[in-house]
Write a structure and sequence with these properties.
Low-confidence stretches: 1-45, 95-241
Largest sheet: 10 strands, mixed
Keywords: Membrane, Transmembrane, Transmembrane helix
Radius of gyration: 53 Å
GO molecular function, one term: hydrolase activity, hydrolyzing O-glycosyl compounds
Protein name: GH16 domain-containing protein
Helix content: 10-25%
Strand content: 15-25%
Number of domains: 2
CATH topology of the largest domain: Jelly Rolls
Oligomer: single chain
Organism: Saitoella complicata (strain BCRC 22490 / CBS 7301 / JCM 7358 / NBRC 10748 / NRRL Y-17804)
Number of strands: 34
Number of helices: 9
CATH class of the largest domain: Mainly Beta
Mean pLDDT: 75
GO biological process, one term: carbohydrate metabolic process
């Protein structure tokens, strides 16, 4: 058959069909003939495969020149658009019991007739290559990157003109005549055809005329599709619709400018004012509401408030008409570790401020006296201010584990000079630095109208800790405000009236802060720096619960089984906080009342062993004393104290 130069090109260069899809080259395989259209064309055979299934029904597959596959079973015939569809149909026609697969991956019918085999993994990936005949993939020898070229007609010209039988065993080319030609890189040479080889090896034989060698070509593995069925591996061919592209969307929006006639109309001044009035009113309302709210919370009206005292500490001594010292070693009910003194080394005025500085007791006694063999009797010295003798005398005894208070500090009070019932207290102060230091600004009742503590109440305006901000129990960047109240010490309900506030990007010891307390018969209010920054607010108005109702006290004391009696029945709605209270300022150290909780911050003592708590604290001096500065920073500095009270009546308007 005459061939043009282009017809002798490789499979990859085959001309496309009318639909734009490259069709497989026509191969003369016995069993079917067709003619290509066009003058001068000769009759050519199309690729075909025939076999009989287990039921004895004849089945043939014929490849058309358009690249599709036709199949027939008996008298029925169908046309398949692709080898993939044909393979799926063959699988349905030949169920698994009819098909037998050999070790090398070939497939045979129950009658023993060889069929299309799956692509045999003869060579390791990715160097495996394949050849195709009529769209059917067959493995051949691997090739190197330098030899990635098609098997052209010139290469195949050396093959004999006799019919060739190309089979898969060991990827060799078997011929049915006496001569054997080796394909490029074939691992076998001079292979000869043997009877039954195709059936034994499971290969598929195609008789290729010498004139149609152009149909046998190399292609890369990437150029063929993976196996789609158990019957074989095929090169899928795209349909003519694969070249269809969706047209680009074209907007139908008008390109002409959108007319907005209302913008062209000039509004009158009246119309502009009508539109502006609602906006102006809204802005004025927001500003006015914000100002009224700020004004209402920023200051307490000074109506009926009278100044009780103001101390700016401008002299060089503490004003004795305002302040006096508490002197004792009893720990003020909290088992604190300091010895409260009136010595000028622990409390003094300098540079316009009052300083309360904790010092080590070993500065006034021998270090050995602190732990053993020393008795401190403040009563005999005429210094003790407590009515409880145990608060005035202490003896160190190493056997018992009792020691002298290891730290000396100061406690200033207005107990004997000034007190208020409702009013306001303002203090500007800077808190101390150092582990286990406990600064306090607080108030106690002058006359204990409702009984001993806490029945007559306690007002803690500010409490803090000198520990660093990393202390998980709230260090010197926290302020705590608390009210203590209850029928007895066992039923102190302070935790119902306690709140805290953290400083913002600073600490209470970094600079001076303003601490405020406002007190009326309707509320009690603590704040930090300004009135807007609330720390705690307690409603004591007639609409609020009384403190007895807030407490949810049991009917009987759990220890004595005695009835719990309301101590505030004779008081007002805000009792016990309806009597005169005086102001206290002190710097404590340690204690076993729980202000420094156990197992927090490597505390060197435990609250459950008060008799030896001071000793354990003192034994860790080398640890905690290193956190105390040598300067006045270890103490509290106060540069202003103001106290106000109601002038005419003890009720608010």
């Amino acid at each position: 058959m005459p061939q043009s130069d282009k017809s002798r090109q490789s499979h990859n260069s085959s001309p496309p069909s009318k639909s734009g899809v490259r069709r497989p080259p026509a191969l003369n395989i016995p069993g079917h003939r067709s003619r290509r259209g066009g003058p001068g064309d000769t009759e050519e055979e199309q690729p075909s495969i025939s076999f009989t299934n287990a039921n004895g029904e004849a089945y043939s597959v014929i490849g058309s020149e358009e690249g599709s596959i036709s199949s027939s079973k008996g008298s029925a015939a169908r046309k398949h658009k692709s080898t993939k569809q044909w393979a799926e149909d063959v699988e349905r026609e030949l169920p698994s019991p009819v098909i037998e697969e050999s070790r090398n991956g070939s497939v045979s019918t129950a009658s023993g007739q060889s069929m299309l085999s799956p692509m045999q993994q003869s060579f390791p990936s990715p160097e495996r290559r394949h050849s195709t005949i009529g769209g059917v993939s067959l493995p051949v020898s691997p090739t190197t990157p330098e030899r990635k070229q098609s098997l052209t007609a010139q290469t195949l010209a050396s093959l004999p003109s006799a019919m060739k039988n190309y089979s898969r065993p060991n990827s060799a080319l078997e011929v049915n005549d006496e001569k054997t030609e080796e394909l490029p890189d074939s691992p076998r040479k001079n292979a000869t055809a043997r009877p039954g080889m195709a059936e034994r090896q499971g290969s598929v034989a195609f008789d290729v005329p010498a004139g149609e060698k152009k149909g046998l070509a190399y292609i890369n593995e990437e150029e063929i599709s993976p196996p789609r069925s158990s019957l074989g591996s095929f090169s899928d061919r795209r349909s003519s619709t694969s070249s269809y592209r969706r047209p680009i969307f074209q907007s139908r929006r008008l390109t002409a400018p959108v007319e907005k006639p209302w913008l062209l109309k000039k509004r009158t001044m009246r119309e502009r004012w009508v539109s502006a009035f609602p906006l102006i009113g809204l802005v004025i309302g927001i500003i006015g509401s914000a100002f009224i709210t700020w004004r209402g919370v920023s200051i307490l009206p000074n109506k009926n408030l009278c100044l009780v005292f103001e101390d700016n500490f401008q002299g060089d001594t503490i004003n004795s008409t305002i302040w006096s010292h508490e002197v004792q070693v009893g720990g003020f009910g909290n088992h604190q570790f300091e010895w409260a003194t009136a010595d000028s080394s622990e409390s003094f005025v300098a540079n316009g401020s009052l300083y309360i500085i904790p010092q080590l007791t070993e500065t006034v006694v021998q270090p050995a006296d602190i732990t053993d063999g020393y008795t401190l009797n403040l009563t005999s010295l005429g210094q003790c201010t407590s009515t409880n003798s145990s608060d005035c005398v202490i003896t160190s005894n190493s056997t018992l584990g009792t020691i002298l208070n290891p730290v000396r500090s100061a406690f200033l009070t207005t107990k004997n000079t000034h007190s208020i019932r409702y009013g306001r207290v303002e203090i500007r102060a800077k808190m101390p630095v150092g582990d286990w230091i406990w600064p306090r600004i607080w108030m106690l009742p002058k006359d204990n109208v409702y009984g001993d503590w806490p029945a007559s109440g306690e007002i803690d305006i500010l409490e803090s800790r000198g520990n660093d901000i990393t202390y998980t129990g709230n260090g010197r960047n926290w302020m705590t405000s608390t009210l203590h109240w209850g029928p007895s010490s066992s039923y102190d309900r302070y935790w119902k009236t306690r709140n805290v506030r953290m400083t913002e990007q600073t600490t209470l010891s970094a600079d001076y802060h303003k601490i405020g307390f406002e007190w009326t018969d309707k509320y009690m209010y603590m704040w930090l720096d300004n009135r807007i920054r609330q720390v705690m607010f307690i409603d004591t108005s007639a609409n609020a619960k009384t403190f007895w109702n807030r407490g949810d006290f049991p009917e009987r004391d759990s220890d004595t089984q005695e009835l719990l009696v309301n101590p505030w029945t004779e008081g007002t709605h805000s009792a016990p906080f309806d009597q005169d209270f005086y102001l206290n300022i002190n710097v404590a150290v340690g204690g076993t009342n729980g202000w420094f909780p156990d197992d927090v911050g490597d505390k060197p003592w435990v609250n459950t062993a008060p008799s030896v708590a001071m000793r354990d604290f003192w034994n860790k001096k080398d640890v905690w004393y290193n956190t105390w500065p040598n300067s006045t920073a270890r103490g509290m500095a106060i540069d202003s104290v103001k106290m106000y009270k109601k002038c005419s009546a003890y009720t608010t308007d």
